Amino acid sequence: MASFNFWDSGSLYGSSSSTNLYSLFSERNSIKNGTYKRLLRSYFGSVGQSSDDTTSTKKSRSSNNVLDKLLKEKMYPTVSKEAQDANSKLTSSLGSLKTSLSTLQKDSTYQDTENGSTAADKVVSAMKSYVTNYNDVVTASKSSTLNNKTAYVANMMSTTAKNADQLAEIGVTRKQDGTLQLDETKLKNADLSKVQKLFSADNIQSYGSTVASRIKFAGGSTGTTSGTAVENTGTTTSKGASATALKADATALASDELYAKVKDEDGNETDDYDVAKILSKAKSFVSNYNGMLDSTASSSNSGVLSNLSYIMERTKNNSNALKQFGFSVDKDGRMKLDDDTFKKADMSKVHDFFKDYGSYVASNASRVSYYMNTNANASNGYTSNASYNIPSASTYNAVM
């Protein structure tokens, strides 16, 4: 069972200082052992003593009832029926949206079939389903308390906003409330290759692939429809290690020191590079690059996602140059290195390339690490005022 998380960055316990740690355990222990309750009862009792005995007794009973309710709510916060319904709707709608998006990513959807269904008709049908399910997810999210899901939905909406112009070209417009509207006629007459490219599953940076990623982690996150907060174990901090290591590797590959010429037995500089040393650093770079992709795959932190996107975009734009040195990137964005090709490369050209590319990767990897650690130190759960830290409407309005 998921437990409550008291480590909310905006709460009384958001700092890691000893004072706040003391406050955390002090209050929890006071509630559990009854000290907090006895203190409040004592206070309410003293207030009632100024009246006659009958009135005082009634006030005391009333105060105790209120106190019991307050303490119960503090330890076991409730979720409204509306929020519970929204949580249930969000969970089911995410599954439906995943299915409809999958149809738009299949090659067969863009081909005529023998039974007479044209590709245009199939695309329109698939898009209608996608728009309906997308709108259900957005609407449910605005009333949901499942923060481990709504954070991904907000990111999905941001992705849609960034691709609004391309979507409009095929008849899908984004309304002010963040939902979508479909012009079936415009879509049917649109260039279907543009639709397929926009939703491509082969391009990890396409609109469809990005949304699919957000749906995957929103739908697969641990949570319940009751609104119970999910415990933050703090593992995200350790996951940031790959980004930190990548920064170090990229910085080294961009430095002059790594490419210092080898000296002969007499200490004289030769024209040779220590290729084995440079190769070792390049292999480490590839390993940590892929490790960063793996560790950030389930992140909902916008800072992590945006800087990760910058790195992947720069890598994609430099794919031809990387290929000359033995680096290749697959459709999932993961990198590989052919040792033999790298060894045969001109190390001076490798150096020149990484001065720019390596420095850029190092800078953004540093930001990825920062935001991952920031995300690890914040919680989406129970706050000091006995309520859930639910994203406000402004979270969604910001991406509309």
Query: What is the ordering of alpha helices and beta strands?
Result: HHHHHHHEEHHHHHEEHHHEEHHH
Structural class: mainly alpha
What is the overall shape?
A: flat
Strand order of the largest sheet: 1-2
Q: Uncertain segments of ≥5 residues (pLDDT<50)?
A: 1-25, 220-238, 376-400
Q: Tell how many strands the DSSP assignment holds.
A: 6
Task: Summarize the main sheet.
Answer: 2 strands, antiparallel
Quickly count the helices.
Answer: 18
Straight-line N-to-C gap = 35 Å
The helical percent reads: 55-70%
Detailed description of the structure:
This protein is mainly alpha-helical. Helices cover 63% and strands 5% of the residues. It has a two-stranded antiparallel sheet. A two-stranded antiparallel sheet has the order 3-4. Helix 4 (81-105) packs antiparallel against helix 5 and helix 12 (241-254) runs antiparallel to helix 17 (347-376). The protein is flat. The relative contact order is 0.13.
Describe the structure concisely for a colleague.
The chain is mainly alpha-helical and 400 residues long.
Please give the structural blueprint.
Layout (H helix, E strand, L loop, with lengths): L17 H16 L1 H14 L4 H23 L5 H25 L13 H23 L5 H16 L1 H6 L2 E3 L5 E3 L1 H5 L3 H7 L8 H14 L14 H5 L1 H14 L6 E3 L5 E5 L1 H22 L5 H16 L1 H6 L2 E3 L5 E3 L1 H6 L2 H30 L16 H5 L3
Antiparallel strand pairs: 1-2, 3-4, 5-6
